[in-house]
Amino acid sequence: MTQSNDEKPPVRFQRANYIVSDLDRALPVYTEVLGLDLVFVKESAEDSYSYEVFQIDRAAKMRFAVLGTPSQPNCMALTELKGTELKETPLPSRSAIVLECTDFDGVMERAKAAGLTVFEEGSLVTKDGRKGRELGFLDHDGNLIVIYLILEHPE
């Protein structure tokens, strides 16, 4: 199916979203450790659709932060919940964000320095034969972040 430049694709990825218990504690993980840009923070409306789709108790108060990069604006969001108990993140992890990071070692060191749970580094081999490094870590609320760096391209 060919698409002209002025037609919208049938689906366009907008952003991932994680629920967090404390936005002020969570933001440095995404801005300082990962290097995402904070686009904005706002209080969520009492009639926000998020209550329904995330199955949030309407007694909870929400704040919403949007993050991005210069080439991918608004690609990540964090929703803070106050006044309700967040259940422990189920295992196995049911979701993750996966990010290509050119500053792989810097992100790894900043995650460790922030006291985050950092898993053992792994070797990455993609389906097309590229080789690299991958590393997973958890934010303060147990949300999984996986970073990778491609080191070798097949000849």
Descriptive account of the structure:
By secondary structure, the chain is α+β, with helices and mostly antiparallel strands. It has one domain (5-152): 2,3-Dihydroxybiphenyl 1,2-Dioxygenase, domain 1, CATH 3.10.180.10. It has three helices and nine strands, in the order βαβαβββαββββ. It has helices at 23-33, 49-53, 104-113, and strands spanning 16-20, 37-43, 61-68, 76-82, 96-100, 117-118, 122-125, 131-138, 144-152. The strands form two sheets. Strands 5, 6, 7, 8 and 9 form a five-stranded mixed sheet that branches. The longest helix is centred in the first third of the chain and has 11 residues, at 23-33. The mean pLDDT is 93.
Query: What is the helix/strand order?
Result: EHEHEEEHEEEE
Spans of at least 5 consecutive residues whose pLDDT stays below 50 are none
What is the name of the CATH class?
Answer: Alpha Beta
Question: CATH topology, which one?
Answer: 2,3-Dihydroxybiphenyl 1,2-Dioxygenase, domain 1
Give the strand content: 35-45%
The percentage helix is 10-25%
- Global morphology: globular
Which SSEs are present, and which pair or pack?
Layout: E1 16-20, H1 23-33, E2 37-43, H2 49-53, E3 61-68, E4 76-82, E5 96-100, H3 104-113, E6 117-118, E7 122-125, E8 131-138, E9 144-152
Parallel strand pairs: 1-4, 5-9
Antiparallel strand pairs: 2-3, 3-4, 6-8, 7-8, 8-9
